Each structure stands twice: as structure tokens, then as C-alpha cells.
């Protein structure tokens, strides 16, 4: 009789020198915003003290849902579609960006001083699943124009370690790097289990802050059981170190890392601002039409 991989492995780590209490993985609350049934999801929101530079990390599922035109400013909106999604998204913004995002690709929209954008599926009956990162850039590019880039699936490094398949969606991991992300420190890594397996996950000590979020199935990381459904933790912080990781066949884990800004930020109405007066200024710019408008898509 085959003994399945245990999902509660003993917590093991080779601690870094001068480790302290902050070097302990911690569970992060995961919420499910009441958006609409067609755009359900689960993610980490409003926990910037723990997730800086990420304002949110969201696993989304949309069935035929068009996200209507809405503004963003002072942040990066990174949208990655899981390869098994059955529709593409047309992603437009008011400053000329217009790209089709097929399954497996990543859209990187640096909103800078602000723009209006929308996402429209090419099939109203299909399902789109993926990850959305909102990365803080408050005060960094106040006068820069919005820039939209697509990272194609064939540009993403893929490799296997035992029964686990890994995809580097953006950023850097070990010696691997996504070409368009040269110098970009935001990293998104996807791990998929083909079979029950134990392994380790090494989080680098390079100044970046890391979080892990279960996207489907069951896994256990650094002594914390992670379940996408049915209770249990869903997200944890990951300090530098070597952590034990187990997963069931079909599990998917998302690991995101970025360099914290360690500065105050106010994030409301899709605007990332340095303070309340900056937020008021961004809101006024939007209300006065300075972030642009999107014409209807021609039939």
C-alpha cells in the first residue's frame, strides 16, 4: 500500500544568522470581496504592513464577466491568466494601450500618473482564472505616462523539480529571469504538483518580502496547512530561509516577492497615494478627466 505524502511535515528550516521573531512564517487572513458571482475570488487585501510592496494579491475566477472601465494610479496592476483558462482578455487603457491577453500570459500595467482601463473577455460564456497583483508605486512616477506590457507564456522559464512543475511568470528566481523584467524586482512564481511530493523552498535573503497563496488543492508550507477550499490557512508570509513544502497532486501554489518601500501609503478607490492630500489630488485629476476616457469597442 502506498503511503501518501504527509500534508503536515515537521517544520524545518536552516535559520539565517541573527534570526529573530520576524523570521517566522505567519498566516495572513484571506478574504473574498463581495464583487459579483461572475468575478469571485479570494486574496490578501489591506495588509500592507505584512505584504509591502503588495497592496493586494488576488486569485480570481471570472465567468463571462467584463470589468468595466475604471481608474488606477500610483501602482502596477499585474494580471496573469492561468494556462487552463478558456478565454482571453482584451485589455485597454485610455492612453493607447490595447492588448489581447491569452491564457498563460501576463499583463503588466504601470499606471504611473493614472489611467482608465478595462478588461473584456473574448467569450462571454468562458471562464478566466488567474492572479492579480497590485504593486505599490505611490510617489514614484507621479508624472510618468502609463505603460502596458505583455509577457508571453513562451518567454517564461519552466522547469521541473521532481513531481513539481515551476513557472517563473515574472521577475527573478535563483539564476532564472524573465527577459522583460531586467531590473524589475517583483517576482511571481507558480508551483504545480503532478503527484504527491515533498520538497524544500528556499527564500532568498536579498531584501525582498515574500508571500505564498494557495490557488487550488492542498499543500503545507513551513508547518502551515494550506487549503484553497474547505477551511484551513490560505496564505503565509515567507521570511528568508529553507522551508519544507508538501503538496497533493493537482495543488497549485503562488509565491510573490517584491522589494518593500517601507513608506506610508493610502490605497483607496484604486489609487495608491503617499497621504490623504495626494489621494485628494489623484481623485480630482480623475474627476476632471485628466486620466483619460475609453471609447466603446467598435462592433
UniProtKB/TrEMBL annotation:
Residues covered by the Pirin N-terminal domain: 49-132
Domain of life: Bacteria
Coiled-coil stretches: none
UniProt cross-references to InterPro entries, sorted A to Z: Pirin, Pirin_C_dom, Pirin_N_dom, RmlC-like_jellyroll, RmlC_Cupin_sf
Domain Pirin C-terminal: 199-291
Region (Disordered): 1-23
Similarity comment text for this entry: Belongs to the pirin family.
PANTHER family: PIRIN (PTHR13903:SF8), PIRIN-RELATED (PTHR13903)
Name used for this protein in its record: Pirin-like protein
